[in-house]
Structure formats: C-alpha cells, structure tokens
Amino acid sequence: MKKPIIILSFVLLILLVGCTQSEETKEKLARTAIFELDETICEEISAVVDYKTMDADFKSDLFKSSVAISGRDYRTECFNVIAVRKLDEKICERIPIGDRDFCVEVLALKKDNISICNMLSGMDKAYCLSTVVRIRLKPDEKVCEQIGEIELTGRYANSEESLIKMLMKIKDNCLMVVGGIKQDIEMCNTIASNDSRIACIAIVKGDVETCKNAKFKYSSDKDECMTIMALVKDDKEICREISSHSTASSCFKESRIQKVKSCENIKPESEKNKCITEIAVIEGDTNLCGQIKDYDSEKECKVTVTSEQ
Description:
The chain is mainly α. The chain has helices spanning about 1-20, 25-35, 40, 55-65, 75-85, 100-110, 120-135, 140-150, 160-180, 185-190, 195-205, 210-215, 220-235, 245-260, 270-285, 295-309. The protein is about 65% helix and about 0% strand. Helix 5 (about 75-85) runs parallel beside helix 6.
C-alpha cells in the first residue's frame, strides 16, 4: 500500500511544479502590488513550497527524482513591504505565522508598540519583545517576565532543553537592560543565572571592567554585558572593547539607533524626520532611515545618506 502513496505524492509534486508561477510572473505581481499598495494582489502570488512540511516519503521521492523547488518568496516579501509602508500590522497576518516575524518586529519598532509582538509565538515572540525593549529602551520589567512565561508550542512544542535555556537567557538579558535603565540593582537580584546577575549589577553600576574581566562561563556573556552597557549608557565606544567582530558590529548598529531617540519628541513629523536624516548622514548609516515612519521620507533619507558618502 505504501508504493501507490509514494507514486501519488510524486505525481502531485510534478503537477505542483508544472503549475507553479514563473519567477518573472511573481516579481511582476509583487512590483504591481507594491506600486499600488494593494496587498490583495500579493494573494495572487503562489507560495513557495515549504520542503519542511512535506511528508517523509514525499521528501525521499524528491531527492530520488532530483527535482528542485526553489526561488524567492515574493509573496511574503510583497506583504512585508506593503505592511511596513502602510504601517498596518494586520497585513502581517496574511503571512504564515512561521514567516511573519520580520513583518511584526519591524512594525512593533516603527510604531513603538510592543503589544504587536503578541502576533507571534514561541521564540519569535521572545526575540520580538526583547528587541523592542533593547532598541526602544523600555523600562518595563513586566515585558521580561512575559518572555519567561512564553509557551514553546507548535514547532517548539518538543523543544530541547537548550532552547528553553535560550528563552531564559533572553529574559535575563531583558532584565539586564531594564535594570540598567532604571539603575535598579534589586532587579538584578531576581535573575537566576549567576553570570547574568553579575553582568546586570556591572551594568547598573556602569562598571565596564567587571564586564571585561569577570570569569563568565561563556565569552558571549562578556560581549553581551558590554553591548547592553553601551546601549544603556549611550556610549558606543564601549563597543570597541568587544572581542567578537560580529557582536561588536551589532553593538555599534544598536548604539547608532539609540541616537535617533533624541528626535522622537520633535514636532511636527517633518522636523522629526529631518532630525533622523541628519543623524543618519553623520553616522553614514542608511539603516537609521528605517526609524522614519513615512515611506517617502524614509526613501528620501536613504538617498541623502548615500549621496553624502
């Protein structure tokens, strides 16, 4: 009985490949949708086949037949761009939950609304909440507690112990940020991990030497201590002390984004956008333009930064 099922799966695969839209057609539909800011056109783009969801026998046949299904996910990209341009998180709901983390996180940051992260689940939700706390410097320990209470359901349901530890680490890092912002050592004492607790106290005290010299179990803990210190103290020079090149780069990027906070209370919106553009030009970083909510102003910011380089 197994063989007919395999054959049927293979036939379905061939039909699926034969009916799949060409990359050119997908790109054309995506461009039209984005130009017209019409997310309903994105619906016309066929979804990329998700190999991870295929039946085991289906996968096996796929390898044996050497049939490859690949290509950009124009459908998801289409929804992402329009959702961000319209500042409408409801459009993110049209994206499968396993792929909507980018859309949700960007809008949570752009709208400075941490509740938007609730559209996600599992680790995706944890990273979203943590990112908004870090970038927007939210002094709210309740968000950190929320991270610790996230259920690893769905694709995370049978997670390994290491993934659960990672979730707790994200929570600890969140408390380190909030503790540093509020200058609250008592908050550090609520952290279970000894290394994270030492790092948190160092951040509250502004003690860079402890971050650099404490005998942390992992070198990444030292780098994280330095990164959060740089964010909380608004001192990107601390990033230069980080040994990991990739972590140091991330530290500099997050520190530059913090400078944009000085523009947040400027009115009207056009003057606020000018302020962000000026900082982006000084820092030579087009990514900072992403903090501008209006799409046309964001695009103009990027052009300005590029022309000044």
